[in-house]
Amino acid sequence: MEADVAVLGGGPGGYTAAIRAAQLGARSVCIEKESELGGTCLRIGCIPTKAWVQTAFALKEAEETFAKLGVRVGEPQLEFPVANEWKAAVVNQMTQGVASLFKANGVEWVRGVGRFKDASTIAVEGGEDVAFKQAIVATGSFPLCPPIPGLDSPRCVDSEGLLAQEQVPRRLVVLGGGIIGCEFASIFRRFGSEVTIIEMLPTLIPQEDADASKELAKQFGRRGIALHLEKQCTGVDESGDGLTVHFGDGETVQCDLMLVSVGRGPLVEGLGLEEIGVELDRRKGIAADERRRTTVPNIYAVGDCAGYWQLAHTAFREGEVAAENAMGHDAVVDNRGVPRPIYTDPEIASVGLTEAEAREQHGDDVAVGVFPWVANARAVMQNETVGWVKSIHETHYGELLGIVMVGPHVTDLIEAGVVALDAEATVETVADGMAAHPTLSEAVKEAGLVALGRAIHLPPKRRATAQA
Ligand SMILES: Cc1cc2nc3c(=O)[nH]c(=O)nc-3n(C[C@H](O)[C@H](O)[C@H](O)COP(=O)(O)OP(=O)(O)OC[C@H]3O[C@@H](n4cnc5c(N)ncnc54)[C@H](O)[C@@H]3O)c2cc1C
Fold first, then answer.
1. Catalytic pick from 228, 246, 396, 437?
2. Is 437 noted as a catalytic residue in this protein?
3. Torsion of CA 54, 59, 64, 68, to 10 degrees
4. Pocket test for ligand 1, best of 7, 8, 35, 46 (most atoms within 8 A of CB)
5. Which of 113, 176, 177, 451 has the least C-beta neighbours within 10 A?
6. Average pLDDT for residues 68-73, to the nearest whole number?
């Protein structure tokens, strides 16, 4: 089979690249080994996880908000099999959607495991070779498992294993307080599990703004999630009908299920890449430049197999850019405005620099404003006043450097910050623009006003802090 552009992997990076190449006139072929398109994101990542987040949010509304707003319903109860049916239906709709887009754009899907034979052929296990002019590698990532004794127990699962559960565990231990671990901890606490997080670093989600991580830890504490920070897990033993997890200095916790979520590694082995001269690192993935070119001129790499971000939306953009370059255009990826959504309760969403990064890069020429949700009318009427919005700018030109949000629907609101950062907006652009009233999005403008010392909706003397 002949292709102008062959894409290895049908996840967010790969399917986007295949469709974009076809839009630009390529005979585009995508090789994907699973029975559905969509990759980790659609099948076993973003989409099923956030379907559960939605069930958790509905429970929260029923438990904490309906009665306050004058809506009487019966005692809320989780019907886990129904939640799982909903999750499966959402996943199915999304994966079928990609298959339809392939048909509509004339992208050919070759089902099977692909491996480079040389720099112009991919061999497909059990099928025909694909001869290509340009290729895009988008093979994704896999969950890492640390060498801790006992983790081979069937009660220790990765995120895919947790998503496949048919019963809510009474006691869940989460090993790793990164994004995936915190999202599942938040969901299962709402589903009724006793949840314990063990994390070897001193903070949850350590790459995020320090105030946001602190706020999350505070709210998790209030929600009854047990946190053991700066503690190493040393071993896991089967103990009758559960597990005994050993950590720290001789401490233990019992559980029925353990999620191992200590990070993901790029899937780069067994693809024949090194043999054809594609430079890669087993930890960091395939080396690719801002045009997504690898060290072999007609081979590109996108997404988790070649990236630092491990996000679906960075994979989407990299896929577009790689396809455009493969088709003779000149496109680059600009990473200034990468949104960082975290679907915990409370949600976190950021873009640009954290406050610490801004101070490191700009010294004292940094101004920060924090606007608490408790002063936003829409948040108050939604009964969702936990958290705040932080606006960070440099004081020479007023250029916006970052926005950090913790609270209601912030994963949707962060797009305002993405557009502002991409447009190199100043804090005045944001603070002097009009935000519809009453909305949650007003808080972005208000945080800018606080940073400029012109807050209208906070008391004059109040120095708004992230702990507000
Ligand atoms: C639990 C969880 C929740 C997540 N939540 C979010 C979120 O909310 N937001 C977000 O932005 N990101 C989230 N992510 C991350 C996101 O899923 C990934 O960043 C994204 O899927 C990366 O896309 P990709 O195309 O690089 O790789 P993948 O989606 O992993 O796709 C790679 C594809 O390549 C196929 N493949 C691999 N090797 C071969 C081969 N040799 N031959 C044929 N096919 C092959 C695989 O089967 C797979 O389908 C989450 C991840 C997890 C695990």
1. 437
2. yes
3. 90
4. 46
5. 113
6. 97
- Tell me, using a 6 A CB cutoff, whether residue 394 lines ligand 1: no
Rounded Cα distance between 348 and 266, Å, is 25
Cβ of 14 below 6 Å from ligand 1? yes
CA–CA distance, 410 with 441 (Å, rounded to integer): 9
Residue 158 in contact with ligand 1 by CB distance below 6 A: no
Q: Give the tokens for residue 126.
A: 């059990």
Task: Give the number of the atom of ligand 1 that is nearest the alpha carbon of residue 303.
Answer: 26
Atom of ligand 1 nearest to the CA of 270: 41
Q: How far is the CA of 31 from the centre of ligand 1 (A)?
A: 14
pLDDT band at 181 (very low <50, low <70, confident <90, very high): very high
| Angstrom distances, CA of residue 416 to CA of 139, 161, 199, 412, 428 | 31, 35, 32, 9, 14
Ligand 1 proximity of 255 Cβ (cutoff 6 Å): no
pTM, to two decimals? 0.97
- 260 has which bridge partners? 175
| DSSP string of 407-450, one letter each residue | ETTHHHHTHHHHHHHHTT-BHHHHHHS---SS-TTHHHHHHHHH
Task: Give, using CA atoms, the residue closest to atom 8 of ligand 1.
Answer: 46
Q: What is the mean pLDDT of the chain?
A: 96
Ligand 1 touching residue 31 (CB < 6 A): yes
**pLDDT at residue 175, as a whole number:** 98
Amino acid in position 178 = G
Tell which atom from ligand 1 comes closest to the C-alpha of 39. 49
Side-chain half-sphere CA neighbours of 258 within 13 A: 27
| Residue 41 in tokens | 């994101």
What's the one-letter identity of residue 228? H
Residue 468: pLDDT over 80: no
In this predicted structure, what is the pLDDT of residue 240?
A: 85
Strands (E), 75-182: 108-111, 114-118, 121-124, 130-137, 141-143, 156-157, 171-175
CB of residue 265 inside a 6 A radius of ligand 1: no
Helices (H), strands (E): how many in the chain? 14, 24
Ligand 1 test: best mutation among 40, 261, 268, 280, most atoms within 8 Å of CB? 40
pLDDT at 206 (0 to 100): 95
> What band does 462 get if pLDDT is binned at 50, 70 and 90?
low
